[in-house]
Amino acid sequence: MRVDVLLLPRELAVRPRPDLYAVVVDVLRATTSIVVAFQHGCRSILPVASAEEAERARAAAPGALLAGEQGGQRIPGFDLGNSPREFSREVVGGREVILTTSNGTKTLRAVGGGRTVAIGAFQNRSAVGDWLVARGADSLIVCSGYEGGFSLEDAVCAGAIVDRVTHVVAGIGLGDGARASQALWERFGSDLPRLLPNTAWGQRMVAMGFGPDMEACARVDVTDVVPVMEGGRIALGEPRA
Question: Residue 241 pLDDT more than 50?
Answer without folding.
Answer: no
